[in-house]
From TrEMBL:
Subcellular locations according to the entry: Cytoplasm; Secreted, Cell wall; Secreted, Extracellular space, Apoplast
Source species of the chain: Aegilops tauschii subsp. strangulata (Goatgrass)
Physiological role: Produces developmental and stress-related release of hydrogen peroxide in the apoplast. May play an important role in several aspects of plant growth and defense mechanisms.
InterPro entries per the UniProt record, alphabetical: Cupin_1, Germin, Germin_Mn-BS, RmlC-like_jellyroll, RmlC_Cupin_sf
Residues annotated as domain Cupin type-1: 23-176
Protein name: Germin-like protein
């Protein structure tokens, strides 16, 4: 087998329409503890995306605060379209020359589109009273995702609580309490 971008590239004689097809994106995902569900459509789920440089995801949000928490995509930019409901979205710029990080936010309703530049920390939250659904298109077949809180407080092995206490300018006991919330059983959330 030939490997391209880390994934098997099928012999053209073996390729079928099913290599370019994925059913079921019309079905909502099961909401996690944050009140959201991300249903990815990357090269991992749809082999036909290999080498195309694109992917997408359906994101379901519970009402009254369901969120896709602060995260980043290290290998792709994202364009988000609200299908139903409303979302407050935002991203933070990278370190500026003056040492400040700017937050850009926007309230979105059905049909609105917002772009999150590659690598920047961003979020979406349903601040409405009904469920919301969005479709995110990404400029990579496998953009990756780093959920900030999970990465910082739930790594294995854990980052030293003394390092995190100093970084977040808080007490070691506070960091210990937060890290306990991200024990291995929750690492998949």
């Amino acid at each position: 087998a030939v490997i391209v971008n880390g994934f098997v590239c099928k012999n053209m004689k073996m390729v079928t329409a099913n290599d370019f097809f994925l059913p079921g994106l019309n079905k909502p995902g099961k909401l996690n503890a944050q009140g959201s569900a991300v249903t990815p459509v990357t090269v991992r789920q749809l082999a036909g995306l290999n080498t195309l440089g694109i992917s997408l995801a359906r994101i379901d949000f519970g009402p009254n605060g369901g969120q896709n928490p602060p995260h980043t995509h290290p290998r792709g930019s994202e364009i988000l379209t609200v299908i139903t409901g409303q979302l407050l979205v935002g991203f933070v710029t990278s370190n500026q020359a003056d040492g400040k990080n700017l937050l850009f936010t926007k309230q979105l309703v059905e049909g609105d589109v917002f772009v999150f530049p590659q690598g920047l920390i961003h979020f979406q939250v349903n601040n409405g009273k009904v469920p919301a659904v969005a479709i995110a298109a990404l400029s990579s077949q496998d953009a990756g995702v780093i959920t900030i809180a999970n990465a910082v407080f739930g790594s294995t092995p854990p980052i030293s609580d003394l390092i995190l206490a100093k970084a977040f300018m808080t007490e070691k006991d506070t960091v210990d309490w937060i890290q306990a919330k991200f024990a291995p059983a929750m690492s998949g959330n």
